[in-house]
Sequence to fold (183 residues):
Amino acid sequence: MKFQVGNATLELIKADITDVEADAIVNAANSSLMGGGGVDGSIHRKGGPKILEECKRIRETEWPDGLPTGKAVITSGGNLKAKHVIHTVGPVWMGGFHVEAELLKQAYRNSLKLASAKGVKTVAFPSISTGAYAYPIEEASRIAVGTVKEFLEKEDKLDKVTLVLFSDRDLKVYSETASILFG
Ligand code: ADP
Fold:
């Protein structure tokens, strides 16, 4: 499924994000930046030790107490097809009363801003927070699609943003949301 936003394309696909050819893929990291399960584990396994080395340096220099929720940092892509990995931390779902929506929005927006600032033209996102962090996918899809759409409407440096879903069901939920938001 594809949508045009200004000069850019927003695309929804089902894939393993570690196979996606984009200038940058986004990692749904945790604040330690030291790897974990889900997308994070796959990115480090396939990308090799270089990414973790760079994450360690970021911890030592920029974020000694860990990367706060909603912020984003960039490393190389190691052995991945993607040249860069943008690591961001989504919120853990705690019932919706703890500014989760705003933090999830920031995770997308700060990743897009960083991509744009680094001259990245194509960027791919997983469904941040909807795995181990248990964010309800219908609500998360509205934030993901809505935030990317809003960003691309205001900013013309990116050529393509791909939202990468890991199951048919997740792709269906995101596609329905996109159809409504692009009405
Ligand atoms: P979080 O901790 O932010 O919830 P997870 O990695 O647990 O992050 O899950 C986020 C989403 O990414 C889930 O929908 C999960 O199914 C999906 N996912 C897991 N592995 C991959 C992968 N290799 N490529 C794309 N999506 C993935």
